Amino acid sequence: GAPTVSIFLKPPGVISPGGSTTICCSCQCANGHFVLYKNGQQLHALERHGSRAEFTISNASWGDGGVYSCHYLVGGTLLAHSEGLDVMVQELLLPAPALSVLPGQEVVAGAAVALLCSPALPGARCLLYLEGQSRALDVLSQHQEAFNISHAREGDGGRYSCQCFTEAAARFRWSAASEPLELVVR
Which Gene3D superfamilies match (predicted)? Predict the structure, then answer.
């Protein structure tokens, strides 16, 4: 079958104007190369390092926002492409939330884990990210205080962060992202 190509931001989340992020393309593929597309238009061929290729956006501007995808080609033939990754550039007007984990950052497999994102602003909703995933894992509302993992497994480990927003009159105001937190599942 065709290889699976994934795309994600490192660090994940909304980028501020002037900020930076890296778009990562990943595939367990043999020989070939990645081409990065934005809004359906070819941007760059990317240099591959093992199973990954990266494209860094530095000094981000509004024009860097859009839907990006990675295409994997061998010769001139497209073998696979990632889903679209929505990159947003927005002013980060709210203070960063605090991310914590209960019972702790190191847990045994099977343990119950709660990731808590504490926004600095009452009524804000927060997105929880796991580095390596193309989308937020969850949207936490003011009524949901934590993202719960009932039986942690090794795949739940990784670098988590959260970012909050408020919405008024169809306008979103975003916070900076929390400090990342590493969850280890043994």
Answer: Immunoglobulins
